[in-house]
Design goal:
Helices cover 76% and strands 0% of the residues. Helix 1 packs antiparallel against helix 2. The chain is globular, with a radius of gyration of 17 Å. The two termini are 31 Å apart.
Length: 183
Amino acid sequence: MEVSTSLLVALMFVTLLSMGIGNAVNTLSVVVEKGKKSGYSTLQVGWLGLMLLSYFNMFWHIVDLLSIDKWGFPGFLYMMTGPLLIYFSTSILIATHSEKETNKMLVKPRFFAVFILLQVWIITVDIMLEKSIIEHSLLNVVLMLISLVLIRKQDETIQRYGLMASLGVVTLAVVLRSFGILS
């Protein structure tokens, strides 16, 4: 039985995404069970919800992965970078609540730094897959700009607005993808 490299790449991609989704859902279940005693702020829970939406949005890259006939090891490694970045950023977000810092309610700049790297990865993958850069990458550029502001401004009000804007952008991407406007 011959197994295509596309299938193997897609299986690894799905495995990494599944681990991240499980991590996010497990944390959300703790928040639901313990409420405010869980130690997570509403900002952290909001970003965790956004990350969960991002996982499901990223899932559609699997269709693109299967369209490539032959994979080399460098391409495989680069493709795995995306699921690793989203998993890593989610883990940073989840770990933030247990730190002994005075302002643990805010989302830390290191989360936004990794989130920016994830957006850069998505843009480069879209370029590699020869998708229209304007239509596919504009939303990612907006998320990068929001994250750049949030790295520099550790203010709760600004982070709330940044979360709302980011949720709007990711929700728009999901809606556009579900209507077939974004493939």
